[in-house]
Amino acid sequence: MNKHEFSEKHKEGVYRAIFQRRDIRAQFIDTPVPDVLLEKVLRAAHHAPSVGFMQPWNFLVIRDRSTKDKVHQAFKRANEQSAAMFDEQRREKYRTFKLEGIREAPINLLVTCDRSRTGPVVIGRTVQPEMDVYSTVCAVQNLWLAARAEGLGWAGSPSSRNGNCARSSTCPMKWW
Ligand SMILES: Cc1cc2nc3c(=O)[nH]c(=O)nc-3n(C[C@H](O)[C@H](O)[C@H](O)COP(=O)(O)O)c2cc1C
């Protein structure tokens, strides 16, 4: 064992969160998520690595029913466009898939990536601009693993167009 290694118990916790993480789109329970718990998982997200320490993400917490409904409408429009891309047989199958839990979930988190944050020149991003998006993905993964450890279900649902989601909430457009 080297001095940087975690104890066996702590290692087990890390691997357990990784292997038992799942995409949860249903079977949410009514118990409200305490703010302190939400803050813990968001803190984990904010500790993700990011290109040039750019931290381009934002997490908007949505609890309001009417905002969730609008986001759901945006999902439905995009989902219909997706369905139309399949041939008839596969389209019917696609329509049976449950691809979101926007209205059932007690909390929606709208995750954005502000690609202009910290200006046009960012260390590590100069030749690969998509690194800001990858950084945001790292933050989401941190959040997802922390949520699993805390017994909170989480699902990613990017199946709506970015601008539509932003318009459905109070998200400043510049964050996209
Ligand atoms: C970048 C990304 C986008 C995803 N988009 C959707 C989505 O739009 N709808 C959905 O139901 N699941 C979505 N998923 C969840 C995947 O379908 C799910 O992770 C995969 O089936 C494996 O299942 P698991 O996460 O439970 O292991 C997404 C996952 C990732 C990483």
Automatic annotation (TrEMBL):
SUPFAM superfamilies attached to this UniProt entry: FMN-dependent nitroreductase-like
Transmembrane regions: none
Name recorded for this polypeptide: Nitroreductase domain-containing protein
UniProt KW Secreted keyword: no
An MF annotation (GO) of this entry: oxidoreductase activity
UniProt domain Nitroreductase: residue ranges: 18-153
Pfam name, any one: Nitroreductase
Native source species: Desulfolithobacter dissulfuricans
Record's keyword terms, sorted: Flavoprotein, FMN, Oxidoreductase
NCBIfam families: BluB
InterPro entries: BluB (IPR012825), Nitroreductase (IPR029479), Nitroreductase-like (IPR000415), Nitroreductase/BluB (IPR050627)
Chloroplast listed as a keyword: no
